[in-house]
Design a protein that fits this description.
The chain has 674 residues and is mainly alpha-helical. Helices cover 39% and strands 8% of the residues. It binds one RNA strand of 76 nucleotides through helix 6, strand 4, strand 6, strand 7 and strand 11.
Length: 674
RNA sequence: GGCCCCGUCGUCUAGAGGCCUAGGACGCCGCCCUCUCAAGGCGGUAACGCCGGUUCGAAUCCGGUCGGGGCUACCA
């Protein structure tokens, strides 16, 4: 045992003793049964979702018992502290509502950052040293490595104990020499553990646990050449949780094996033992087996994943609570959030984090929200993670609200098409002209291989007779489909596929694709109403007729697939197209970005204006290319390049709407798989 | 290697010796509804890791084994 003078010479003379801290952090005087819990993350990067899980349990237990919840930052390993971690923590705490109780954010039993508590730890280390319950260890890192190697070779337990603990009982003389030589030292705990002795404790979740006692003289204060002088986790845990008057330590099961050490530390320090609850870690399916969800390998392990995708916090919380207590998973969300979590009901096997299930919960949750609430949340999310979206939503809140109201407001089973805010752009983006890319190719695969000719016919027919406010809106499509020879129902088509080009399903798919860019969408009448007649006609009329001239551009075009020989009507259509080609005004394409007119450069597609007679362009002649060739023979004003005819069906003047000239940016991406 | 924790459908789980032919939820599959997709309705698929023991009787108790995870740091 070292002399008191020698021990004291190692510490600042004005360092207070343990009584000082005991007075400074007095017992709380909380009523019987009130639990004080703490969440203690280490600021080594983004918070782990398991941290949110633990913190949520901590907070819930504290509050439901009338106790207190605090957050203590465990940054005793300064080398691993990440810049910006504090900000990320703050964001995560705010998002998931797991910040410390108000009076435990500052002051009170703080500071709540371990690197700021050096004095406290030093007091207790000195005390242990004075009592001979700890000692100085001058082993270098290299020596430690060699020791471990020898232990391994000898088949002995690694660690600092027994014959391997060379500094445990070193005479004061030698210690003084080392000190005089300026050698750095660590402080080790003199473990009272005996070989063969077993200890047991009662875990609040697992019941009684028994294991070998600790015999390792664990380091409690890191090397003297580090600044600030900080303790290891074990020592900080004992000192902090005692002084902060924590009653229940909830932590990951990886700490179970350290409990014997912790119990020894509490006893040596003269602290009453503390209760523990070791929770199973969140796991991840990896191939055939499962492993702990790892922040390094699994993006979904990080809270940033949930925040950046805009998972609604209450849904995530609900999911996590259900994992903690199965009972809560079968309750409606508001009730489950209010019910207390019970440690005794927690599973001991690590649950697999199931993103599919989370999605399902999120969809259910979002379905309970009003369009207005969703818009507010999406907008708030977008401001940070999708500025383009935020801008568009700010510019057209009414459109957004109309879109969100579809099959959501005033229905018994709201549409469950949104799981997280990042889904919004995929699911509702097409409503916004800025995000919608017009479908111009009648041979577009989204039409499902339907004859391009027919696609054009459907579009033209629809646009030509469009009645936006028709009571039987869908009847318009039904009539047009019948007129063009589509089967009245999928069933009828299946019975005799040869008799029809397709069914009403295919016909409406044409309008659906034109309107939404996808083969699936909410009900067409509702979509059309939200869009407004001008936008509907703009989209339906976007289909182009492409013609290649000889020697040019042989990519497959709609024209290539035209059916059998010309009839009267088809020839009339052709003439109309050609008439359009001579329209001097339209021969000068508009510069889309500036809205200016300028002469068409050689090879520029020539637009064909809408003409009343071209309603049924879908019925154009098959050898169209040939006819065009003939008609253009000898003309010098038309360049032998692909000609693009755009048969906009008769539009009411001004019906093109305000967005007609806006370039589309980006199409409608595929929906995320469920 | 040593010590510790854990093991029921794909997933989360209910299950305290007979109420278990193992229940629910999510997923998945099928059907219905239907202009598509969701949603919804109906139905289906699917598990006690394995081997012994105790017992009239075992998912449940015991032993072993196998598998998964953790600790074995001057990381937390």
């Amino acid at each position: 045992m070292l002399s008191r003078d020698l021990v004291d010479s190692l510490f600042p003379p004005d360092l207070p003793g343990p009584q000082h801290w005991e007075r400074r952090y007095p017992p709380r005087g909380l009523p019987e049964g009130a639990e004080v819990t703490r969440f203690s993350p280490s600021p080594t990067g983004f918070l782990h979702i398991g941290g949110v899980y633990t913190a949520m349990i901590d907070k819930d237990i504290a509050h439901h018992s009338g106790g207190r919840y605090l957050v203590r930052v465990e940054d005793t390993d300064q080398a691993r502290v990440t810049a910006g971690a504090a900000e990320q923590f703050a964001e995560a705490f705010g998002y998931f509502g797991i910040g410390p109780d108000k009076d435990h954010a500052t002051g009170g039993y703080g500071p709540y950052t371990q690197s700021a508590r050096e004095q406290v730890y030093l007091s207790y280390v000195r005390e242990l040293l004075r009592q001979g319950k700890a000692y100085l260890d001058f082993e270098t890192q290299q020596e430690a490595g060699e020791r471990t190697a020898r232990q391994r070779a000898a088949g002995a337990l690694p660690g600092y104990y027994g014959q391997w603990a060379v500094w445990r009982d070193a005479p004061q003389q030698r210690v003084a020499e080392q000190l005089a030589a300026g050698r750095p030292y660590a402080v080790r705990f003199r473990s009272p553990g005996l070989a063969g002795r077993r200890v047991s404790f009662t875990d609040a979740i697992r019941g009684e646990l028994t294991m070998e006692d600790n015999r390792n003289d664990a380091v409690i204060l890191k090397r003297s050449d580090t600044r600030p002088r900080l303790p290891t986790y074990h020592f900080a845990h004992a000192v902090d949780d005692h002084l902060m008057r924590v009653t229940l330590v909830i932590r990951g099961e990886e700490w179970i094996s350290s409990v014997p050490l912790h119990l020894q530390l509490f006893a040596a320090l003269g602290f009453p033992p503390i209760r523990y609850a070791h929770i199973a870690p969140l796991m991840k399916q990896a191939g055939g087996s499962r492993r702990k969800l790892s922040k390094r390998h699994d993006p979904e392990a990080s809270v940033s994943f949930y925040i950046a995708h805009g998972y609604p916090a209450p849904a995530v919380e609900y999911y996590l609570r259900g994992l903690a207590n199965g009972r809560l998973a079968e309750m409606p969300l508001p009730q489950a959030l209010a019910e207390p979590i019970r440690l005794s009901e927690m599973g001991t096997a690590g649950p697999l984090a199931d993103l599919v299930k989370l999605d399902d919960i999120c969809a259910d949750y979002v379905a309970t929200l009003s369009g207005r609430t969703i818009l507010a949340d999406v907008t708030a999310w977008a401001r940070r993670y999708d500025p383009d979206l935020a801008r568009v939503l700010d510019a057209e809140p009414d459109l957004a609200l109309r879109a969100l109201a579809i099959e959501r407001e005033g229905v018994a089973n709201p549409r469950k098409d949104l799981r997280k805010w990042a889904d919004f752009r995929n699911v509702y983006g097409y409503f916004f002209p800025e995000f919608f890319q017009l479908v111009t190719d009648p041979a577009d695969p989204r039409f499902g291989g339907l004859d391009p000719d027919l696609v054009r016919a459907v579009a033209a027919e629809f646009a030509g007779n469009y009645q936006p406010t028709a009571e039987d809106w869908f009847g318009q499509i039904r009539r047009l489909a019948a007129e063009l020879g589509f089967a009245p129902s999928g069933k009828a088509y299946k019975q005799d596929p040869a008799a029809y080009p397709g069914s009403i399903v295919e016909a409406s798919a044409v309008i659906r694709v034109l309107l939404t860019g996808a083969r699936d969408s909410p009900g067409l009448p509702a979509v059309a109403a939200a869009l407004g007649p001008g936008e509907v006609l703009r989209r339906v009329g976007a289909l182009r007729l492409r013609v290649s001239l000889p020697g040019e551009d042989h990519r497959p075009h709609a024209v290539d697939g035209l059916g059998p020989g010309p009839g009267q009507q088809r020839l009339r259509g052709l003439r109309a197209v050609l008439a359009g080609l001579r329209n001097p005004c339209r021969d000068e394409p508009r510069d889309q970005r500036r809205g200016e007119r300028r002469p068409a450069p050689p090879g520029h597609p020539i637009e064909v204006p809408p003409r009343a007679g071209v309603r049924r362009l879908g019925a154009l002649v098959p050898p169209l290319r040939e006819r065009v060739d003939q008609s253009l023979a000898g003309r010098e004003d038309v360049h032998p390049r692909p000609v693009v005819a755009e048969p906009c069906p008769a539009l009411p003047v001004g019906a093109e709407g305000a967005h007609a000239d806006r370039p589309g940016i980006g199409g409608r991406p595929e929906r995320a798989p469920r």
